[in-house]
């Protein structure tokens, strides 16, 4: 099954290349495995091919050219797939059109100086929590939240996920009882997330919904 994640690497023009990682979401540890020495998260610190490839991608190398670039290379395995899913994207496009908030468990943004921001995905779909919702969109339908770290560990991660799962269960019941419409249910999910994340962490929501007055929100 894996712990799937998407990783966005910043290019020199401010856009991003988007890569897939099958295990990168596990404990959000990929945040500490991506560095200038190991740009795709592998154990090989002498990965000249990886550094060169990422430099080429940062300068605008297209997806179609990557296969030829990697042909014949004897490469150790990496946590992040070296070949991108897409290139030349904005963060707005990634979180709205590429990120699957149900199947991708995490999202990482890597700057040109290898500062890595780790986000946990929180899916807004209520089809498993409500008898009246038949199907919920998965791509672009959710929120991204950073978590509290201590001594290299994401200590706030499990708590946030548990809180959100319990919240969705309650909201699903309220939807079935007619207390919420699907629109007000989404608004309530957004509001509560804003209260929980607060000012110390970051909350990203596609489309620019404002969760609360106190949350630190990056509207994409």
From TrEMBL:
InterPro entries: DUF6735. It comes from the Archaea. This is Uncharacterized protein. It comes from Halorubrum trapanicum.
